[in-house]
User: Fold this.
Amino acid sequence: MHDVGKIFVPPEILNKPGSLTVDERTIMNRHPVDGAWFLSAVRPDLHRDVLDAALYHHEDFDGRGYPCGLTAQRIPLVARIIAVADAIDALLSPRVYRPAWVPGRVRHYLADRSGTRLDPLVVSVAIDRFDTLLTLRQGRGKRRAKLILLAERET
Ligand SMILES: [Fe+2]
Assistant:
């Protein structure tokens, strides 16, 4: 739901194999604002966290993200979590311009972006529970993953 604003991005930009032009990047970078606007228009009763996730999921921990250039804890926690989850999911997925990354490479990417693009605390939790996240993402062994999370919670 955080990327719902991409429905306003033309498919030729969304699926472009090469890098985007400055104008195309400007259009693409509007999707957080468009998404938050769209969600609040169609569902005014949505929880604030959902709107924050849509609006702020491309903010970078060091302030170099968009649309607002927020830093660190000024970025709502839900958006910092979505940023990490989105990076994991995107890198593990094949794209028209690159094949899917292997899990080890994704873990290295997270560690490398910790404190710059991504929240170090969220990255640390994601790396600690990486295998569980992979299991959850694959949609296989959901019951097993839930049991792992419950067991961790009790210890
Ligand atoms: Fe996005």
